[in-house]
Write a structure and sequence with these properties.
This protein has 616 residues and is an alpha/beta fold. The chain is 53% helix and 9% strand. Helix 4 runs parallel beside helix 5. The longest helix is centred in the middle third of the chain and has 24 residues. The protein is globular, with a radius of gyration of 27 Å. It starts with a helix and ends in a 9-residue tail after the last helix.
C-alpha cells in the first residue's frame, strides 16, 4: 500500500458541506435503500423538534448562528481516483436527499427561494446529476423533484419503490408549525447546524474495516440498556436482581425478534401511555415536555421523574413490583399488538387495519396501551386495544376521504392529549369518550361525495375498496376477508379498476372538457377491485362489454350485474339489513356513477359508524 492508501481522515462537517455540489456513489454491497416509515418519521421529528427547541418567534436570522448544533452521526466514504463511494451512511444520506427535495418543493408553495438545489444535484454544462448517484433511482428522484410524486413501475427495484413511499412519509411527518416565517430559519439550521462526521479511507480494505468496526464492535449502550442498569441498581436483593435481569433479557430478545430496535419503541410507547403528563404545545418556540423527552431519552426521563412513575421514596411501589408486574403486563400487551399487526386476528382486527392505514405508530401505540390496567383480563385487554384501534381507523379514514392530512406533526398534540384522557378508563368510558370525539369531528363521510383517486392516494383508495369489498362479502356470509383484497400472497394481487375506460370520446355527450371527464372518471364510485391481469384485459372495453364478465368477480363488482339480484337470498338479506341501495346498472352514465358513489358512502357509514359498536 502507498502512504495515501494507508491514510484515514475524519472531518467535522455541517450538512451543507456534506452535500453541497458533492458527488457520491453507493457501494454495491449495501446498495438497497431500506428505511421504513418509522425511520423517516423519527428523522423528520427529531430534526424539527431539535430546531423548535432553539427557535423563538421574533428571532432575527443571524441569531441562528447561536442555535445549538444537532449531531446526526458519522458516515464512511472510500476515496479512489477522485471518486467517493459511500461505505456506511447511505440510508441517512439518501433520506436527507429526499427530505431536501421535499423542502425544495414546499418552499415553492410558501413562495420562498432559498438555494437548496445544489445540495440535491449539481449542474455541469447544462447536464444535471444528483449528488448521490445510483442510476436506477434517477427517474424517481427527478419525478419527486419536478412533480412532488412518483408512481413506481413494474421494473423499479426495491430501493426506488421504497424511496417513493418514504417521500410521502416525509410529507405526512413535516409539522405545519414550520410552514410559516420559521421555515427559512429551519433551512438555515438544517444547512449549518446539523453536523456529521465524514470518515474517509483511501483503500477498500481500510473502508470495509471501518464499516465492520462501526457495525460490529464498540457500540454504545442503548437507552434500553441504560434504563435496565438504572432500575437494577435500585434492587436491594441480589437474587431478585438476577431474576429481574433474566426477565429483562428475555423480554428484549422477544422484542428484537420483531425488529432490532423494537425494545426502544416499546419503552417509549409504554412510558408515554402510562406516565407522561406534559406535552409540547404545537407552536414555534415551545420546549420539549414529557411526551417528547420520552421519545428521545426515556432512560434519563425515568431517572428524573420517579415520582410520576410512582417509584419515589414516598411510594409503596417497589422497583421489584415495577418489573415483575407492570413491565411484564405491558410487555405482553405490546407483543399482542405487534402480532396483530402482522396477522389478521378476530377481536384485534382493527390493529391489523391501522397498520395498513392509520396514524403514526409513535401516536397509535401509546393510545392503544393507555387504557390498560394490570387488573384487566386478557379479553378486556383485547377489547380495549381493538376499540382504540377502531377509533384510530375511523379517524384516519374520515380524514382521508375529505383530503385532510393526519401527519404525526399535525395531530400529535391532539393524540397525546387523548392518551391522558383515556388512560386507565374502563370499556364503557372508552367507548363514550372516543364516540364523542368522532361525533365532534368536522370531517364526515359526506366527503365521499367528491372523493376521487389521484396521484398520491392510490394506496388509500385500494385500502378503502378492500375494506368495503371484504365487509360486503362478510355480511353476505362469504369466506373472503380484507387480506384477500389488500395484501394476499396467494394468486394475482388485486388492482383498482376504472369502470369507465380512459376514452373521453365515449362520454362527450355528458362532458365538454376532457379534464372534467378525467376528474369524474377517478371518482370512487367509478372504481372497483379486480385481479391483476383481469383488470388489464378489460382495459379499453366499454361498460356494456365489461359488465357480463363482472358476474365472475367479487360481490361489490357483481352488484353491477342483474343476475346478482336473482335467487341470492344472502345478498338480498345484506341489502335489507343495512338499508343499502344496491342496484344493477344496464349502462353506466354520469348519473349511474353518482348513484354508485352514494352507495359507497352508505357502506362507509355502516363500517365506520361513530358509536364504535361492531358493524358485524
Amino acid at each position: 500500500m502507498s502512504k495515501l492508501e494507508h491514510k484515514i481522515e475524519a472531518h467535522h462537517l455541517n450538512l451543507f458541506e456534506v452535500l453541497n455540489e458533492q458527488k457520491y456513489t453507493v457501494d454495491y454491497f449495501q446498495r438497497e435503500y431500506s428505511w421504513g416509515e418509522k425511520h423517516i418519521e423519527a428523522l423528520v421529528t427529531d430534526l424539527t423538534s431539535a430546531f423548535l427547541n432553539e427557535y423563538t418567534p421574533g428571532d432575527k436570522r443571524d441569531q441562528g448562528e447561536n442555535y445549538n448544533n444537532y449531531y446526526l452521526g458519522p458516515f464512511v466514504v472510500s476515496s479512489k481516483d477522485g471518486k467517493r463511494s459511500i461505505i456506511d451512511g447511505q440510508q441517512r444520506l439518501t433520506s436527507l436527499t429526499l427530505f431536501l427535495i421535499y423542502l425544495h418543493n414546499l418552499q415553492k408553495e410558501l413562495e420562498y427561494e432559498e438555494k437548496i438545489e445544489p445540495m440535491i444535484f449539481s449542474e455541469l454544462r447544462g447536464h444535471q446529476s444528483f449528488n448521490i448517484t445510483v442510476e436506477e433511482r434517477v427517474p424517481c428522484l427527478k419525478a419527486l423533484f419536478d412533480q412532488g410524486y412518483y408512481s413506481p413501475t413494474e421494473t423499479d427495484d426495491e430501493s426506488t419503490v421504497n424511496m417513493a413511499k418514504r417521500y410521502q412519509d416525509i410529507n405526512d411527518s413535516f409539522p405545519d408549525e414550520l410552514k410559516n416565517e420559521s421555515f427559512l430559519f429551519f433551512i438555515d439550521w438544517l444547512k449549518y447546524n446539523v453536523i456529521m462526521v465524514e470518515i474517509i479511507a483511501y483503500s477498500d480494505e481500510n473502508a470495509y474495516t471501518i464499516f465492520e468496526t462501526m457495525n460490529d464492535r464498540g457500540l454504545n449502550l442503548t437507552p434500553s440498556e441504560m434504563l435496565k442498569g438504572f432500575i437494577l441498581s435500585r434492587f436491594t436483593h441480589v437474587t431478585k436482581r438476577q431474576k429481574a435481569n433474566d426477565q429483562w433479557k428475555k423480554a428484549i430478545m422477544n422484542l428484537k425478534a420483531f425488529e432490532k430496535d423494537e425494545d426502544q419503541r416499546f419503552f417509549q410507547s409504554w412510558l408515554r401511555s402510562q406516565y407522561a403528563e406534559s406535552i409540547r404545545p404545537g407552536k414555534a418556540g415551545s420546549k420539549n415536555e414529557d411526551f417528547e423527552k420520552i421519545g428521545t431519552h426515556f432512560h434519563s426521563w425515568v431517572r428524573d421523574n420517579l415520582t410520576k412513575v410512582g417509584l419515589d421514596s414516598d411510594s409503596s411501589k417497589t422497583f421489584e413490583y415495577f418489573i415483575e408486574n407492570e413491565f411484564q403486563f405491558y410487555l405482553k400487551a405490546y407483543i399482542q399488538i405487534l402480532e396483530a399487526k402482522k396477522i389478521l386476528k378476530a377481536k384485534l382486527e382493527h390493529v391489523y387495519y391501522i397498520h395498513r392505514w392509520g396514524i403514526a405508530p409513535t401516536l397509535s401505540l401509546p393510545l392503544m396501551l393507555a387504557p390498560l390496567t394490570i387488573e384487566d383480563s386478557h379479553d378486556t385487554v383485547c377489547n380495549k386495544i381493538n376499540i382504540v384501534a377502531r377509533y384510530i381507523e375511523t379517524f384516519a379514514v374520515r380524514r382521508s376521504v375529505n383530503f385532510r392530512k393526519f401527519s404525526a406533526s399535525s395531530i400529535r398534540y391532539t393524540m397525546y392529549s387523548l392518551v391522558k384522557e383515556i388512560r386507565g378508563k374502563n370499556l364503557d368510558e372508552i367507548r363514550k369518550i372516543l364516540s364523542e370525539k368522532l361525533s365532534e369531528m368536522p370531517e364526515s363521510f359526506a366527503g365521499i361525495d367528491h372523493f376521487r383517486l389521484h396521484g398520491q392516494n392510490y394506496r388509500f383508495v385500494k385500502y378503502l375498496l378492500s375494506r368495503m369489498t371484504a365487509w360486503v362479502e362478510y355480511q353476505a356470509g362469504m369466506n373472503t376477508d380484507f387480506v384477500t383484497y389488500y395484501d394476499s400472497d396467494k394468486g394475482n394481487p388485486f388492482e383498482i379498476e376504472h369502470i369507465w375506460a380512459d376514452k373521453f370520446s365515449r362520454h362527450q355527450d355528458e362532458f365538454e372538457q376532457e379534464h372534467e371527464f378525467d376528474s369524474y372518471r377517478n371518482r370512487i364510485g367509478n372504481l372497483v377491485l379486480l385481479p391483476q391481469g383481469t383488470n388489464q384485459s378489460y382495459g379499453s372495453l366499454s361498460y356494456e362489454e365489461k359488465q357480463p364478465h363482472y358476474i365472475k368477480e367479487n360481490l361489490l363488482v357483481k352488484s353491477l350485474c342483474p343476475l346478482t339480484y336473482d335467487n341470492n337470498p344472502s345478498f338480498i338479506r345484506l341489502k335489507n339489513k343495512w338499508d343499502l341501495h344496491f342496484k344493477f346498472h344496464a349502462e353506466f352514465k354520469k348519473q349511474d356513477l353518482d348513484t354508485r358513489q352514494n352507495l359507497y358512502r352508505a357502506i362507509c357509514e355502516r363500517i365506520w359508524n361513530h358509536q364504535l359498536k361492531s358493524p358485524n
